[in-house]
């Protein structure tokens, strides 16, 4: 009996304390309410809409009014003859993007951080950030103009230098498509993606570097033993997040870069959803594919997170 | 709008969302117009005169929910594209308009080899075409049709007396593809044909001074009839000995649902009367061709007469243009005089003087389909098959043209692959879709 009374008082006291703390920090709670409302309204409430993946959704009947159809759209997607091609293309492009696009910004950030000449550093930053602000449509337009078979800049230069003779076939070769896609992406976002690592590097304790200099460490050793270990948590977090969106290959760029000659390797899930689903006003089908996509992404995210924890790194949760 | 069900009083135009419109009609969001026809005598008269158009917009239960857009002018629908050749260059090189496939090749070679001489620019493109996904404009189909294989667009689907025919599996298509491949390997057609977008296409074929020896299109501002260089060329004879075709479009309402009135419209009668006003021939003239006084005028006898210069003025006088096929009009060419028919080199003249003998018989033209063809599940399946089969067909043909692979050696495997992708089911569904027209 007595223990129960004690624990009850304890709970009461704790509740009172919490309430008191909340009153004291009312402003902070109010502040966090805004993002919470945002999340609830725009990220959790719409989840109900997923049900249209299992329905024959017609906008005029609404989400609740459309008839149930079971797993029809999922079966339809998995039984597509091109299903495996599309899945493979998506994985190839996103994995390649990840492998090529992930380490380079880290190296670039370390290089910038280690650069002694401030003016050069600033200039390199400005130049490398600039492409990020070009819109995708304009960017793909640039690729098409530069790589245009006969009149393109690169074709002209290569012909003048005698590297190739006749038209430049890059845009027409399906083998070239993944490389063009990935490396143009690296060029566009290298600088921008390095910002977060650069920020992490500025947080490294200067005392460590001073101590290392006193101990006679050279520049490379300091990078290897101080800089990289310091930003490892950032690297791991970003890697996990990137792995979680492997199937979420951006739509616009792939779609805009598609042509008849690379169709075999350039059809990915997002472009397929657009063509098979949205163009033909088949929202349910699009939703079903999108749902599959998210489930795979979620599994990947959890797997990588678990692996990170197993090898002793901080995970996301 | 259809998703939120937040409707205006009326909508005019709104292309490419027929399925969403049909769903809204069936859900009762669109006013059923059958009871209001007495307020639209112009529309009623037009539909009575052309019962096939009435059939096109009428639902199986007899309901009419929308007025169509119909522009019945043979000069417009009768011919898809005019195949144009640069007559100035032909004259400079002392050449004739080619009449056979070999002559055509020789003319293109001459354009290529004389780059930089006379008015032929250094960067000349002997024959400009574009390999597009589905669209019918300026693509490879003019060449395929010249070989006597009728193909209208990237669907490769045509109809013969009500039977669906898939020309992508017709072995006769091999010859024109080989011919295109030869042109490609000799650099007579541009490498960029697989990558150019429509904006590039229009700027290249309309370039002044011309950089293209030959191209195809609906209009060309640089037409011979208007003092320009491009002259209509008939489809050439080929060694196949088959009668060449030129492409034509189906006659009928170009849009099934152009004018719609929604349930929250406060005054349906007024909205129907507005439609009736727009459907009068005079207003339809302005909707279709443009403002009176610019695009057309009343002649001395009081008849509406088109201005043949109007094609050239299109770009400069945008504000005076009619909305054309994006608006609402019910117009037949019986109402006006088109003097362009007498103008040598003009599209209208070319239809009757160059192309008429090469038009396919009307039973070969794919009809404009009515609103209802297949049910939801069948439509979904047909969409999937379309995606799979046509994607494969187009990619394979593009590769053959670009000289990758051997069409003779790979033909059987190509057919086998299409069969594996579901050819039989595809043909059955396409046929069912057609039957909705022919067996109604």
Which features characterize this protein?
heterodimer, A: 317 residues, mainly alpha, 71% helix, 0% strand, B: 440 residues, alpha+beta, 4-stranded mixed sheet, 16 helices, 12 strands, 37% helix, 12% strand
Task: Describe the fold and architecture.
The complex is a heterodimer of chains A (317) and B (440). Chain A is mostly helical. Helices cover 71% and strands 0% of the residues of chain A. Chain A is built from 16 helices and no strands. In chain B, 37% of the residues lie in helices and 12% in strands. The model of chain B has no long low-confidence stretch (mean pLDDT 87). The chains are: A mainly alpha (317), B alpha+beta (440). Chains A and B meet through helix 15 of A and helix 1 and helix 14 of B.
Short description:
The complex is a heterodimer of chains A (317) and B (440). Chain A is mainly alpha-helical.
Shape of chain B: globular
User: What is the general shape of chain A?
Assistant: flat
The oligomeric state of the chains shown is: heterodimer
Mean pLDDT of chain A: 86
Low-confidence stretches of chain B: none
Strand order of the largest sheet of chain B: 1-9-2-12
Order of helices and strands of chain A: HHHHHHHHHHHHHHHH
How does the helix and strand content of chain B classify structurally?
Answer: alpha+beta
On the 0 to 100 scale, the average pLDDT of chain B is 87
Distance between the termini of chain B: 32 Å
Give the uncertain stretches of chain A in residue-range form.
none
CA radius of gyration of chain A is 26 Å
Greatest chain-chain contact = A-B, 31 and 36 residues
What is the gyration radius of chain B calculated from CA atoms? 23 Å
Strand content of chain B: 5-15%
Number of strands of chain A: 0
Main beta sheet of chain A: strand number and arrangement?
Answer: none
Strand content of chain A: under 5%
């Amino acid at each position: 009996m007595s223990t129960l009374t004690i624990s009850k008082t304890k709970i009461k006291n704790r509740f009172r304390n919490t309430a008191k703390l909340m009153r004291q920090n009312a402003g902070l709670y109010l502040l966090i309410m805004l993002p919470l409302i945002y999340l609830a309204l725009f990220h959790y409430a719409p989840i109900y809409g997923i049900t249209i993946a299992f329905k024959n959704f017609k906008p005029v009947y609404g989400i609740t009014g459309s008839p149930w159809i079971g797993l029809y759209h999922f079966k339809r997607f998995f039984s597509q003859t091109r299903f495996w091609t599309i899945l493979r293309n998506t994985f190839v492009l996103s994995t390649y993007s990840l492998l090529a696009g992930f380490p380079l910004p880290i190296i670039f950030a370390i290089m910038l951080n280690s650069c002694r000449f401030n003016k050069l550093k600033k200039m390199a930053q400005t130049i490398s950030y600039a492409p990020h602000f070009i819109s995708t449509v304009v960017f793909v337009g640039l690729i098409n103009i530069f790589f245009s078979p006969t009149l393109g800049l690169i074709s002209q230069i290569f012909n003048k230098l005698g590297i190739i003779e006749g038209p430049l076939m890059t845009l027409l070769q399906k083998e070239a498509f993944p490389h063009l896609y990935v490396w143009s992406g690296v060029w566009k976002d290298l600088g921008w993606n390095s910002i977060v690592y650069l920020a992490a590097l500025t947080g490294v304790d200067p005392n460590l570097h001073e101590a290392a200099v006193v101990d006679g460490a050279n520049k490379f050793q300091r990078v290897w033993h101080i800089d990289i270990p310091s930003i490892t948590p950032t690297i791991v977090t970003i890697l996990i997040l990137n792995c979680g969106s492997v199937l979420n290959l951006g739509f616009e760029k792939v779609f805009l870069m598609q042509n008849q000659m690379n169709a075999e390797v350039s059809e990915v899930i997002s472009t397929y959803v657009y063509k098979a689903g949205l163009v033909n006003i088949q929202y349910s089908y699009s939703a079903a594919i999108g749902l599959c996509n998210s489930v795979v992404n979620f599994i990947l995210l959890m797997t990588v997170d678990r692996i990170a924890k197993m090898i002793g790194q901080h995970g996301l949760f | 709008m259809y998703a939120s069900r937040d409707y205006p009083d009326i909508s005019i135009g709104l292309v490419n969302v027929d399925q969403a419109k049909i769903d809204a009609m069936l859900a009762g969001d669109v006013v059923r117009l059958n009871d209001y026809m007495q307020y639209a005598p112009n529309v009623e008269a037009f539909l009575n005169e052309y019962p096939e158009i009435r059939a096109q917009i009428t639902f199986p239960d007899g309901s009419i929910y929308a007025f169509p857009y119909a522009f019945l002018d043979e000069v417009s629908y009768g011919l898809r594209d005019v195949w144009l050749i640069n007559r100035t260059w032909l004259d400079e090189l002392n050449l004739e308009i080619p009449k056979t496939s070999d002559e055509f090749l020789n003319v293109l070679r001459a354009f290529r080899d004389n780059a930089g001489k006379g008015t032929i620019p250094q960067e000349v493109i002997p024959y400009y075409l574009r390999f597009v996904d589905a669209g019918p404009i300026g693509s490879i189909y003019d060449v395929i049709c010249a070989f006597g294989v009728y193909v209208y667009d990237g669907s490769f689907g045509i109809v013969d007396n009500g039977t669906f025919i898939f020309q992508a599996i017709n072995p006769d298509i091999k010859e024109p593809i080989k011919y295109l491949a030869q042109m490609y390997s000799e650099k007579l057609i541009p490498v960029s044909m697989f990558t150019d977008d429509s904006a590039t296409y229009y700027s290249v074929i309309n370039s002044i001074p011309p950089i293209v020896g030959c191209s195809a299109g609906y209009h060309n501002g640089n037409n011979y009839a208007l003092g320009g260089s491009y002259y209509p060329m008939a489809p050439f004879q080929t060694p196949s000995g088959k009668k060449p075709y030129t492409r034509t479009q189906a006659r009928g309402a170009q849009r099934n649902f152009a004018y719609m009135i929604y349930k929250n419209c406060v005054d349906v009668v007024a909205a129907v009367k507005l439609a009736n006003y727009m459907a009068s021939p005079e207003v339809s003239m302005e909707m279709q061709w443009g403002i009176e006084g610019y695009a057309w005028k009343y002649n001395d006898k009081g008849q509406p007469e088109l201005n043949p210069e109007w094609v050239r003025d299109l770009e400069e006088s945008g504000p005076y243009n009619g909305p054309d096929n994006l608006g609402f009009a019910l117009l037949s060419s019986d109402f006006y005089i088109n003097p362009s028919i007498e103008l040598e080199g003009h599209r209208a003249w070319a239809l009757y003087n160059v192309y008429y003998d090469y038009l396919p018989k009307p039973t070969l033209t794919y009809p404009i389909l009515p609103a209802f063809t297949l049910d939801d599940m069948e439509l979904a399946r047909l969409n999937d098959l379309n995606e799979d089969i046509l994607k494969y067909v187009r990619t394979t043909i593009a590769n053959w043209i670009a000289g990758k692979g051997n069409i003779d050696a790979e033909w059987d495997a190509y057919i086998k692959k299409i069969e594996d992708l579901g050819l039989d089911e595809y043909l059955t569904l396409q046929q069912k879709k057609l039957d909705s027209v022919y067996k109604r």
